Amino acid sequence: MIDTLVRRLDQFSSKTGDFLSLLPLLLVLLQFAIVLLVYVFSSGSVQLQESLQYINAMMFLGGVGYTAFKDEHVRVDLLYCNFSDRGKTKVNFYGTLFLLVPFLILFWHASIPYVTDSWSIMETSVESSGLPFIYILKSTLLLFAFTLSIHAVADLLRHGKALFAGNK
Amino acid sequence: MMDMSVVVTIAMFVTLVGMLMSGFPVAFTLAGTALLFGGVGIATGLMDFSFLEILPNRLFGNVIRNELLFAVPLFVTMGVMLEKSNVAEDLLESMGKLFGSLRGGLGISVTIVGALLAASTGIVGATVVTMGLLSLPTMMRRGYDTSLATGSIAAAGTLGQIIPPSIVLILLADVMSNAWQQAQLNNGLFSPVPMSAGELFAGALIPGLALVGMYILYQIGMAIFRPETSPAIPKDENEPDDGLYSRLFLALLPPLFLIVAVLGSILTGIATPTEAASVGAIGAILLGAARLSTRMRNIVLASLAAIILLLVISTSFDLRMGRESVPTADQVAYWTAVGLTLLFFTGLSTALWRTHKSGVLGDVMRSTLRISTMIYAILIGASLFSLVFRGIGGDEIIEDMLHSLPGGQFTAILLVMVLMFVLGFFLDFIEITFVVVPVVAPALLAMDGTYGPIWLGVLMAMNLQTSFLTPPFGFALFYLRGVVPEHVPTTAIYKGVMPFVLIQVIALVVISLFPELVTWLPNKLFHG
Q: What is the ipTM of this complex?
């Protein structure tokens, strides 16, 4: 039961990675196209340049859960690498519970009104010729909260089970 | 109230270090610890809860809309592509063949390749591991002294941090320019002078190259005075020379050209770091593809020819079609340019398709996604940390403390450097840049007698690089230990790296005494 749930959540994280890994390539190609436009054809577009912000934001905010799933968020592993498997599980369980979860709660709490306020006035760009979708750009903050929450739940279940289920 | 604030500030740092040692991911540890002390701050009346709620606004303004940070995923793409398509491996091999027949030649090759790989991922570990895996077996087989070999590899692996264009210098430039603005505002200058990433690159160039030179001198010295430590590859073991130079040419020239082009366009102010980084990334993709087959190499060469023609046309003709009357010559040039662009993108698409088919492209992009996200996540955690830190008045405490030290700015800078050196034992460059630099740099820069943000930035970067090398805790040494055979004692690595640490310390003292070594080039290029 728990295992199935954890597997589903992990699948989600993994899928987001497959999708989001297209974005760095898109970023490279678009920025390069802009360079050609500016330096060869002497024509720039603020909107095109601003679209990069949207792609980049989607990439690094949405990718946080996937990166956590792949365990590639840097750790200080001076001591950690010598811990037993059970020790590592403990670090990850209690770390998620007492450090990550409170942070996620704050993040949701602070960004939901921030994003809805922006939607309610259909906020446009600060630059007059920029892309008029600031409310969408701000909404990418929720991608961070969402993908990281999915991963946090998966980790709590996975490590919690490993720590507490074995003792019964 | 002030005392309370001091206690909470100190407790916050001590707790952070303790929590980090548990090994829980740095980004989330920063955020969680910040929140904990936000709670303490609120309970003791030092700060208000609304302070924490500014976070999304901060992230939006400083992170999402930050143009400079775009350069990160682009440079990471370039670095990972060069690494995964074995460009580095080839480089090391050909250099080894060129210099290998000289005494000390292999060590020198390692140093040069380490310097060229500057545009790597910005993570010390990755470069050290790559270099260790690639060159250590060869050096050991050729009878190199174990200490000298491991020391050279560890030192060369950290060189990439300080030689532009490196990711860490971009991150440091972002943090430093904010600190510089703040320091000027605090001193009552209301139209502060900015500092750009290009300037920091320019500042780091001479000291970085000087380090490369000093490393090489040391290796030459060892080859002369203790020849048994660094033997040459015997002549007869060398393959016949036919084709060696052309192979070397092919392995060395393209990446060298790419790095010089990227760096050059930033330093001369032609392009922003982000623009240059995209060119670097495209170049790396083409380089990677060119290695797949002869046919692909011809396609890449054709694409490059198209780009060069395109540049020639754009400098000789006016290609703006929106003008009232466009001369026929310009029209012809315009359509030729359009044709060349299409040709180029056809070549690029083929290159992308081929690298995709060989599995490299997907690998590179997923890796880029993870590395960029990891960097950004630390930035997000650090944003909350510095928000709370300011909230409880920590910045004022640090400023008061640094300003009240006996000995003025000299002691203050020395103290900060020693602190960063020690932190470098267990935190990576990125964390120190995002957490420590914003806290100390404004106070240091506001003092009389410092030589400005570029000098301070280079000094900090070089200081951290030294820290990563220093036994017994240096980061680079841990990573190297992981790839060095079991039978090599750890003390041999320590012994080998000490001369390089000494070189670093000399370099640090020299740039402290002669700040012009750092500030001359940026002044010349950007304000001359």
A: 0.95
